[in-house]
Amino acid sequence: MSDLKLRIATRKSALALAQTTMAADAIVAANSVIGNAADSNNARDSLTYELVSMTTEGDRRLDKSLASFGGKGVFIKELEIALLEGRADIAIHSLKDMPAEVLPQFKLAAVLKREDPRDAFLSRGGSAGIRFMDLPAGARVGTGSIRRVVQLKALRPDLEYVPIRGNIQTRIGKLAELDGVVLAAAGLKRMGLADQVTEYFSTEQMLPASGQGILAIETLNDATVQESRVTGRADLAQILARVNDVATYCIASAEMAYLKALNAGCQFPVASFAEFVCEDGIENRGTCGALEENANRIAQTLKIRGIYWDEKSEKLLRAEVAGNVDLNSEDCVQQSKNLGIELACAIQKQL
């Protein structure tokens, strides 16, 4: 047995470091068990990791909206350069920070099981604070997302929505001057700040950002892969495959395909949310409970909902499609993408 060290590119923010460490620990855990008959090795190599942290353009330019200077790519460009230059073997991102399609030199190698995808509302007093629908007319609510703003306005057009950016603690600190702020539940929970939440928006009230709550692992594409301390000694793809959650990968594929089909990024008020539903229609945070109980089940129903704000008509367009995705098939990712594209077509027919 030999020792392997995985070099992982990450942003320097507290949330990014926490999420990357979580993903790295999951990779190590998935590769630390003794191989079985289905494994090509009797025992897996001992895997460790080191973080290669850096500050991205999106972290530096907090005085402007993302749409004004490049969109989602500003959070991942420096990490991708580290991959190309051989300074890192993989990069960990929040999927919602990634463009709808990665550049051809890279690939989305794996994703972890989705955390809580919902948006959360925080007001002074935490869980005992004033709930969103109980805010007085004219109250000021902070969010840096136009996706959130159009949906919040649909719920409460009588409130003022204030653009804010910064890390989680900075945004929570805005409660000193605002009546409330809206943040992703996943980040709050990963940072141990769930006790700050006043309430969670249901996905019917507010559709999450595409990819919200999903940690993505990016690597070089096979055609551009370079020698590294891991790829030269072990199969990096196999290492990452052991931690990949297939159902979440299909969900991610559907949601990102929707964005790609609409040619939409963070500068567009657009969102999609996919979930596997049981036969009785009840969802279970992304995967049907029966899936884990019966790994041989042939197909699952994947439902995906989408929104798009049409500035011309000043209407929030909504659509929903569903279809079977065979999680035991090599075609499951393409089946999921097809549903995302179908959803985009349903939205486009309304334009």
TrEMBL record:
Any one Gene Ontology molecular-function term assigned to this protein's record: hydroxymethylbilane synthase activity
EC number: 2.5.1.61
Keyword Signal part of the UniProt annotation: yes
Enzymatic reactions: 4 porphobilinogen + H2O = hydroxymethylbilane + 4 NH4(+)
Keyword Transferase: yes
Boundaries of every Porphobilinogen deaminase N-terminal domain copy: 6-223
Pathway the protein acts in: Porphyrin-containing compound metabolism; protoporphyrin-IX biosynthesis; coproporphyrinogen-III from 5-aminolevulinate: step 2/4
Signal peptide: 1-23
Gene name tied to this protein: hemC
Keyword annotations from UniProtKB, A to Z: Porphyrin biosynthesis, Signal, Transferase
The protein's assembly and partners: Monomer.
Name assigned to this protein: Porphobilinogen deaminase
Cited InterPro entries: HemC (IPR000860), Porphobilin_deaminase_N (IPR022417), Porphobilinogen_deaminase_C_sf (IPR036803)
Record function comment: Tetrapolymerization of the monopyrrole PBG into the hydroxymethylbilane pre-uroporphyrinogen in several discrete steps.
